[in-house]
Amino acid sequence: MPFPWLGRFGSASSGRAGRRRNRRAQQQGQGEDPAPQEAPQEVAERRQRRMGFGIGAVLLFVAVGVVAFGYYREFYQPPRVWAGSVRNVEFTMGDLVSRIRVLQGVNRYQGGQVNLSTVPFEYLQNLVNAEILRQQSPVMGINIQDDDIETELRRQFVPAAAPGQETDPGQLEREFKDSYSGYLTATGLSDADFRIIVEEQLAERALAARLSEDIEPRQDHVEIRWIQLSVDGNILIGDVAERLENEDFVRIAQELSAPSQFADPNGYVGWVPKGAFPDLDEAIYGDESKGIAALEPGAVSEPIFTNQAYYLIKTISPAEERDLNSVMGFKLLQETVDAWQREALVAGTTAGTVRMNFNSRLYDWVTDQVFVTAPRIDRPTPVPDLLPGVPGIQQRPGGS
Q: The whole model's pTM is what?
């Protein structure tokens, strides 16, 4: 071979790659041990372990994500979801729960309970109504100051002195603080919470005073009796109507009519002005626009269905002009306030300045939160008169 050293490094045509291969071959030939080869079973097991770790990590990530999403959805998000708004003032579900708990505190003090089947949505409406009134108060000339709230608190909680008894201002102040502090402790309310309640009640009382100016003290009345049945009772009003074809109205009223502050045990209601019971006006007074005539004296109405009760009305005397008495005057005033609130709510909703957000899931969340702090006592405790002079505006009377 002319160039024997080429046999060691390879020919020039073999290229650099060939020379590297030759060099590795020579190194192996000089005694280097080859790299150990893994068994196929070990390789498969290692792959399975890696795959298991990967799947476990994914499942753990999914589980953490589900827990985190559940926490966000059930605990973090709901209190912050908006429940309603009036212009630029927004209420959250947390605000709604807080206000219902205030109601719980007052009811606990009275020995009652909050009706969770109706209260959440009704109280949301109350929050919205109170804010609508707060924003419209300047236009209506209603201005509730801190001094007004303080005066109302002292009216409620300063003990009344006996006639002729001398009073010590310092002693009265101490008794006021003790009485008021005891009330807040018994109800679980804060001073700020209760002052908001008083402010809203004073505003509504002022609204009632404004609206009462438009109620005529003398107007048409119709004298009536009624048979009133509970909406969740077992008595069918159709069966009662059939009985009236052959039986006396008073006797059936004595037997079946539900107790009411507006009727005696014989079903006698008395002289009723138009608007005091809006759901009954059509039967009592008729409606010319619908071609419905008023009930004739002695006639009995068809069954009347309302959200509060079912009725059968019997007219005793035709319409005549009479003075409003205190009971019907307060009932008419209450309905007037309610009508103002409904009209303001509808107007705001139509204009887009009032919104409410409530569905079954949020309802369930609210009721669950409120149930945790539901009152567990049944013993009534005397409660101060929050709104003297305008009974029935804050609390619904039974029966209608």
A: 0.69
Beta strands across the sheet bearing 89-92: 89-92, 82-86, 354-356
Element (H, E) at 92: strand 89-92
Amino acid at 166: E
Inter-residue contact 305 to 282 (CB < 8 Å): no
370 membership: H or E segment, kind and range? helix 360-372
Residues 275, 281, 282, 288, Cα dihedral to 10°:
-50
CA distance 252 to 120: 37
Q: Which residues pair with 263 in a beta bridge?
A: 260
User: Chunked in runs of 10, what are the mean pLDDT values of the chain (400 residues)?
Assistant: 44 54 57 58 72 70 57 46 83 79 66 62 84 93 94 88 71 88 82 90 95 95 97 92 96 95 96 96 94 94 94 96 96 96 93 84 74 49 38 36
How far, in Å, CA of 247 to CA of 227, rounded?
13
What domains does the chain contain, in order, with CATH numbers? 1-28 (no CATH), 87-160+168-213+331-372 (no CATH), 219-323 (3.10.50.40)
